[in-house]
Write a structure and sequence with these properties.
alpha+beta; 35% strand
Amino acid sequence: MTADSDNRYPDIEVYLAKAPMEALNDWLGSAIGAEPLAPAGKGKWRTRGRLDDSEIPVLLVERAADGFASLWFDSARTPWPNDAACAHAAALRLGGEVRCSLGGWQPGDEPDRFLSVLPDGREEEIHWPDSGR
């Protein structure tokens, strides 16, 4: 993981190669006590979870990037301090590849560098350019 992997991010976003709704709802329910995802527009799903006294809004966007679904937790109060920790948890629980940013993005950083995490815990830095779709 990156050097800033212990810093808590203001929000978490991961990209799921596989997003089976039942498994995703089970994971979100156990991790943050979320109700099942509900439709929120074409290819979008929303729910809210809680951790301690904090509400955690969640948005799933199907086919957000090259066949991957985007899963966004709009809170700094998640069970995971950063995207990479969430990616590891999601890959293990959902049984598929999960991608995320390498760390907090700053101007001048390479925007197409991501971390790919596999269900067995293996990870590697990858080049994942935005296809513009």
